[in-house]
Amino acid sequence: MNKKKSIYNMVQVGMFAAVLAVMSQISIPLPTGVPITLQTFAVALTGYILGWKKAPVSVAVFLAIGAVGVPVFSNFSGGFSRLVGPTGGFLWVFLFLAFLCGLGVEIKKRFSKSVFILVLILFSALGLAMCHLLGVAQYAIVADKTFMKSFLAVSAPFLIKDAISVVIAYFIGIAIKQAKQVKPA
Fold this sequence. Notes:
This protein has one domain (3-174): Arp2/3 complex 21 kDa subunit ARPC3. It contains eight helices and two strands, in the order H-E-E-H-H-H-H-H-H-H. The protein has helices at residues 3-25, 39-67, 80-84, 88-92, 94-106, 113-143, 147-154, 159-181, and strands spanning 27-28, 36-37. The longest helix is centred in the last third of the chain and has 31 residues, at 113-143. The protein is globular. The mean pLDDT is 92.
């Protein structure tokens, strides 16, 4: 890979880590400790635009910056304790959501449009399912609650919002990619 392409990739990864940090601050706190944010939207958008190779790197940069204490997580919080705390499972599983959304978009090159849509939906749904399943599991363990009580408190209220976020992220991702291809006059 040439130096120019390498710098371009680093800028993209850093830029989307910043997008994740900004979208994390658009937050409505809830009593359960899991706020309503635009993080799922930002992670899916990162996956759809950067693809399966660069998107998880961008999320990893975001998580690393937050882990060392920079307040990039929701409500301007940071620190390693956030990753191992009750809501941390939702954060680190974003790596998989970004990967699967990016992989779903890459499939487009190999299949017909109708098969692509089905595969994209499958990969995106699998990524969301992993986020919620593993996020709830960590919450249940750390908060010492049953899985069902944890699911009802920190997952069920967000499922529809997260599914809509992923769909909107895909369409915004398409618009951004198309705008990038348009050459100025």
